[in-house]
What does this fold into?
Amino acid sequence: MPASLPTLQCKAMKLYTAPRAPNPRRVDMFLAEKSAPPIERIAIDINSGAHRTSEFRAKNPIARIPVLELDDGRLLAESRAICTYLEGLYPEPNLMGSSTDERAFIEMADRQVEFTLLATIANAIRHTHPGLAALEQPQFAEFGKSQFGKLAEKIRWLDDRLATQAFVASDRFTIADITAFCGIEFARLLKWKPADIGLTHLQAWRERIATRPSAQV
It folds into this structure.
């Protein structure tokens, strides 16, 4: 880490998070890749509805996790925005692009993965897994099942891409790989894996990413 970076900044922050939820995990994995100083974690029990309380809505009015409380008291929500802030504080290793072109193409890939893979899997699980019934009322089981049915069509592009390159956005590991990995790992709640729908390149990529230390957070 460059000597000019303010190493105490992360220690003064607080990260409101929820263990095992995919978006908080994106931030955790991002931080692990950065080897940044530890941030104080405050676990929010989303199954009990703690994220919907007036106390938490004062931090994020749309009741979403994670939220990063900065050392000056400001509150930053949305995992992508939090990672952008942390990238500025801890620019190495670079995960979001070092040039205008690279930043744009990495963000494009990250958004595509978020909308086609992570969001589809999240909808499927939230509407079919009994353990998430408290978060999604009412659950629409048929809708959830239909989301899994659409996965092969929605993410075939990603399997095709990984047939010709080692990582999602480019020839190196980036935030787009973190988003894709956290989405696939969330699907393990329903014992689903890419190989189940013939996405062998995506499955092989998942196995490689799973060996990274950041994948163990």
